[in-house]
Amino acid sequence: MSPDELVYLGILAASVPTGVLFRHLSPPVKQGAALLLGLSITLITCGVHTLHSLITVLGTWVIIKFSWKAAPALSLAWTFLYLLFFRLMNYLPFDLPQPTPFSNAIQLLLTLKMVSLANEVHRYHLEKKQDVSSFSKSPVIGGLLHEPSVYDIISYSYCYVGIMTGPFFRYQTYVDWLQQPSPLSLPCWQPCLARLRFVPVYGVLFLAVNHLFPLAYVRTDDFLERSFFFRFFYMFAVFFVFRMRFYSAWCGAEAGCITAGLGCYPQGAQSKPGGGPTTHYNPEPHTPVQYDFTTVQNIDCYNTDFCVKVRHGMRYWNMTVQWWLHHYIYPSAPFRAYALRAGWTMLISAYWHGLHPGYYLSFLTIPLCIAAETAMETSVRARLGPRGQSAFDWVHWFLKMRAYDYMCMGFVLLKAGDTVHYWSSIYFIVHVTAVGCLVLGRVVRGRSRDNKNAAREEETGRKKSE
């Protein structure tokens, strides 16, 4: 593990017992302590680069303060343009210190928070203007009771919980955490240990497989001399290492949220990852209440590996960010077709991750895979019996995993040349398969439509002759 990864690991490990201490604090003290701890982590790991995050926060506050009506669009433009400046500092003619990986991680999560905050404040003013007391028609239940002050915004931005690793959570979730009436009565160690139980396994597998299949080997000339099956198999191992790394990190980050009590809501509130409660829940007096931490769940390891479809795989990976994309990016896509809207969302997601061409090559392969699987489902699977559909789903799952293996290579190799170099070494097999499935699905659907039209015409002719 690199020194940076060890620092991340240390912060994650320390956040778990620290969270328990925060359950004993009153709301004002909790807010100040969380800000002080998060700001200290930022200053220690980022140094002067803390200014990037502070400028982003203050810029968003100015937007919210003076133009709440346009805040959602302006905050998105402001934070994304600042991301561009932040990432192009290597190429600017000024002698500026280059950002660190830690400042990049903080900047990524802060971008999500500021855009979400602007949308929450916008909604608050609309509801206030209309004098609406119920939010039951909104896709996200619960709204702000007042416009946050600059201190509130800074406290939310630098809250120590998940400051580098996530998960993303809305400002309202943060407020609910501060105002919990009896945090010591909420579940703590049982859900925390349940979330951490497989982390040692993920960690050992990550270290072992990463040692056996180093990514750097893909960039060597010797790699091309290996057999096609070896080169094809290598992406299995790389994606496995990638998954184990993030499974460990995200489960650890969720454990830190759980011990602090952040994102704890009654199960009846039907919370969504990132968004929080989706329905009002008023339990009967003296009725035992079951709680969950779905709001801060960032990964569903089982369904990530074993769901059947490409589109479903995205839902179970980085779940809080997927919620953010679905609510703030997907609805504004300039297309109506699902595959094209998904493509737009993936383009924005790639930009959020960075400017490396590998991100774009990988993310923009997803819409092609979605279009291919949709075509095969509607034209082939729909015509099969139960056993045939079961066999189809197994093949579909296998191809889904290979598609993610394939796209992961672009995500980790980063450079366009390295990504195309690897993809060409396995003959662009996923692109070719996806295009083949898309064409086959449309041909089969076209023939089916022609057969139905012919049958309809034959039936019409028979009735006329009678």
TrEMBL record:
<keyword id="KW-0472">Membrane</keyword>
<keyword id="KW-0256">Endoplasmic reticulum</keyword>
<feature type="transmembrane region" description="Helical">
    <location>
        <begin position="223"/>
        <end position="242"/>
    </location>
</feature>
<dbReference type="GO" id="GO:0071617">
    <property type="term" value="F:lysophospholipid acyltransferase activity"/>
</dbReference>
<keyword id="KW-0012">Acyltransferase</keyword>
<dbReference type="Pfam" id="PF03062">
    <property type="entry name" value="MBOAT"/>
</dbReference>
<comment type="pathway">
    <text>Lipid metabolism; phospholipid metabolism.</text>
</comment>
<dbReference type="GO" id="GO:0044233">
    <property type="term" value="C:mitochondria-associated endoplasmic reticulum membrane contact site"/>
</dbReference>
<dbReference type="InterPro" id="IPR004299">
    <property type="entry name" value="MBOAT_fam"/>
</dbReference>
<dbReference type="GO" id="GO:0005789">
    <property type="term" value="C:endoplasmic reticulum membrane"/>
</dbReference>
<comment type="pathway">
    <text>Phospholipid metabolism.</text>
</comment>
<feature type="transmembrane region" description="Helical">
    <location>
        <begin position="422"/>
        <end position="444"/>
    </location>
</feature>
<feature type="transmembrane region" description="Helical">
    <location>
        <begin position="6"/>
        <end position="22"/>
    </location>
</feature>
<feature type="transmembrane region" description="Helical">
    <location>
        <begin position="70"/>
        <end position="89"/>
    </location>
</feature>
<comment type="similarity">
    <text>Belongs to the membrane-bound acyltransferase family.</text>
</comment>
<dbReference type="GO" id="GO:0006661">
    <property type="term" value="P:phosphatidylinositol biosynthetic process"/>
</dbReference>
<feature type="transmembrane region" description="Helical">
    <location>
        <begin position="34"/>
        <end position="64"/>
    </location>
</feature>
<feature type="transmembrane region" description="Helical">
    <location>
        <begin position="335"/>
        <end position="352"/>
    </location>
</feature>
<protein>
    <recommendedName>
        <fullName>Leukocyte receptor cluster member 4</fullName>
    </recommendedName>
</protein>
<keyword id="KW-0812">Transmembrane</keyword>
<feature type="transmembrane region" description="Helical">
    <location>
        <begin position="199"/>
        <end position="217"/>
    </location>
</feature>
<dbReference type="GO" id="GO:0030258">
    <property type="term" value="P:lipid modification"/>
</dbReference>
<keyword id="KW-1133">Transmembrane helix</keyword>
<keyword id="KW-0808">Transferase</keyword>
<dbReference type="InterPro" id="IPR049941">
    <property type="entry name" value="LPLAT_7/PORCN-like"/>
</dbReference>
